[in-house]
Amino acid sequence: MVSQGAAERKARALRVELALKTVTGGPASPERMRRVLEQALVFSSASLAAVYTPGDGADLLCLIESAGVPRTLYGLRETYAVDGPSPAADAHRSGASLWLGPERLADYAELRRMPGDVHLAALPVHGGDGGALLAVTDNPGGFGTDDRACLELVAEAVSLPAPTEPDEAEELRANSFSLAMDTGRVEVGDEILELFGLRRDRFDGRVETLLGHTVPDDLPSLMSVVEADHMSIGERELEFRVLRADGGPPRWLRLRGRLLPGGEGHPARLVGTVADVSTLRSGVTDVARVQRLAAALATAGTVRDVSQAVVSALRVPLRADRIALAELENDRLVVTVLDPPEPESWPELWRLEWRTEWPDAPVRTMPTLAAALREGRARIWPAGTPLEPALADVGPGGLAVLPLSAGGRMAGACLIGWDTPHDFGPDERALLTASAGLVGQALMRAHAFDAEHELVGMLQRQLLPRRLPKLPGAVAVARYLPATAGLEVGGDWYDVIPLPDNHVALVIGDVQGHSTGAATLMGQMRTALRAYAAEGHPPDVVVSHANRLLMELETDLFATCCYVEVDMEAGTAWCVRAGHPPPVLRHPDGVTEIAESDGGPPLGVVTQADFPMTPLRLMPGTVIALTTDGLVESAELDIDTGMDRLAHELSVSDPAHLGLVADALLGNAHRGDDVALLLMRYDGMAVRPLREGWTVWRVPEAARHARRFTRRSLRAWGVPVDAMDAALLVVSELVTNALVHTEGPVRLDLTLVNHRLRVSVTDNSPRSPVKPTSLGWEATGGRGILLVEAMSDAWGTLPVSGGKQVWSELLLEL
């Protein structure tokens, strides 16, 4: 059986091979070597990778390409003697890989100054004239097994034939040049001379002559390229201006160059091309665009807002065909905006990774992108650049990647792609660079805003019911909309409380203010109302108890509340209001009614307050709507007009789809305040229970009278005599237990529905009966509750106002 670790190593090796195959699969280009080395940085712990090959004299190993941090940080040189003592020379001569830790590195005199925890790998390059691949890591454990396998694959990839550079003796292309770094002599093509306004017969071959035609402000950047001390191995790109002989505006040129090391007796050379990019530059500066983007980002609150601002600011000015902005979460890019949004406009790999609306792209499938994020600077790849599959179709005509960093960490990336070949002018590059910094900061702020908003929303959801209960003879739905202004959690709440005997309590309320204090108090009030209702108190007592509790909490906040208790069997309801908008009833014929009723003050205002009850009559098909003032009142809308509008919208709705009705009612909600909405459609119970009740007399023969009442009721309901025995025994034991252990009135209630009989005995004692754990033969009591448990299909106790109810359910064989 293959271990998980072995499977992961195999999968990692396959990813490395795929990435290298992608990089090296295209036509040879000067960038290919660097792109191969970048894979070592992506898939291993290497912080630097460099390739050395024999120079022209074959007695020196010369640095031809590197990737990662500057080599000077580790004291690596540009050349090493083939016969000398160095890791690169040893690997080249022996053909074997060297894995050197701090102790072995101390054997090399020139490497003793390297940091003490650095590890170095030297791998031979077998293709061509040979050479060596050097890799350095700051990992204290050095290169692990997977790292070594990755570097071996990279060493094989760099062995492929590299693109050849033009020799000085060869005829240069019209737009090419070759500069000898030691003498400053330069060979240039005819197009370059034309761009500088020079004639071939008047050019003296000196680079200083060309520099004399450039705009003085651009000279420092040019000198950093043409002076050997400031130029390192690898590709470089620069845009600068040259003066026109006719006095017109300066012409913009783009220089792309590559420094080639020289061997023994041969100078280093800078070779490359120069092209005219004046026509690609806008005559209007991009400062205005950057300012507009900054203004848009300043008001962008969420990540989506930031993304949309970026698309609006960049796509049209850059004439881009697609833009993607993504957040970096661990090792994955979670894309927040794609423009255009259609899946078919994006690479196939992204479509395979599609998650509902946006893709979720792993960074490791795009090592080129991973390298750009690690370097933290904008990268541009022109048309024809071989890229991995996840990026190739984003910009076949050109791709720009903007790493979005802020606060010392990488927040995400912006990908901009073109379908047709696109030349990147200096203005565009400046716009991209400036935009990256602005977007990174805005993205960090928006991410923090979204995280805080999500935390607030999670707190609100935890304080509200997760789901509404299934009701007998009714359907209920609820909606909650938080205010869009600010992040403070609100105090609106709703609840649906199932009660005994097919009663249901509908509750909606609002605590003053928007704060964590209001949310905390809301949770306390919701819990208190549920607890008082479960105790069996009538609606006015439930609300009175909640008012007294709020007064005792000594808070400066108050709360409004509307409490409606519905009898599902009778189709009646009692409503109690405490400073809250009244319910709105929609009758089956579509007529709506605002249930005006006398109400009490808000909770927490007056200690001894009256909360009168108002009766409501419900017909099957009636809809009860309870809402908070956020739906019916605002600065532009008084509450009376808002209630009338709610009643009208409810009257024209279709109550058959209650969820759609709730969504429609919230469609025009003012989002300056929280909104809670609770709807219940009363359908009536399909089967109404049969009920009888009797107050037990405290007489010596009370149990016999209770059995007689039970037998008479069951006979009237058509229950056969032979099916009554278990019920009569349960009634006898429960009534006897209540009379013996409690004082005050005792009530017996019988309910029959669908062959299921419920026997309930209510008394004034809050203490529940205790089932004995063991009984000796001499015990004179305690067996009654065991008999009830044995005869019942289910039994239990419920708190009621001032006492308890012990109940038992039996399935009768009729």
From TrEMBL:
<dbReference type="InterPro" id="IPR036890">
    <property type="entry name" value="HATPase_C_sf"/>
</dbReference>
<dbReference type="InterPro" id="IPR035965">
    <property type="entry name" value="PAS-like_dom_sf"/>
</dbReference>
<dbReference type="Pfam" id="PF07228">
    <property type="entry name" value="SpoIIE"/>
</dbReference>
<feature type="domain" description="PAC">
    <location>
        <begin position="236"/>
        <end position="289"/>
    </location>
</feature>
<protein>
    <submittedName>
        <fullName>SpoIIE family protein phosphatase</fullName>
    </submittedName>
</protein>
<dbReference type="Pfam" id="PF08447">
    <property type="entry name" value="PAS_3"/>
</dbReference>
<keyword id="KW-0378">Hydrolase</keyword>
<dbReference type="InterPro" id="IPR001932">
    <property type="entry name" value="PPM-type_phosphatase-like_dom"/>
</dbReference>
<dbReference type="InterPro" id="IPR000700">
    <property type="entry name" value="PAS-assoc_C"/>
</dbReference>
<dbReference type="InterPro" id="IPR036457">
    <property type="entry name" value="PPM-type-like_dom_sf"/>
</dbReference>
<dbReference type="InterPro" id="IPR029016">
    <property type="entry name" value="GAF-like_dom_sf"/>
</dbReference>
<dbReference type="InterPro" id="IPR003594">
    <property type="entry name" value="HATPase_dom"/>
</dbReference>
<dbReference type="InterPro" id="IPR001610">
    <property type="entry name" value="PAC"/>
</dbReference>
<dbReference type="InterPro" id="IPR052016">
    <property type="entry name" value="Bact_Sigma-Reg"/>
</dbReference>
<dbReference type="Pfam" id="PF13581">
    <property type="entry name" value="HATPase_c_2"/>
</dbReference>
<dbReference type="InterPro" id="IPR013655">
    <property type="entry name" value="PAS_fold_3"/>
</dbReference>
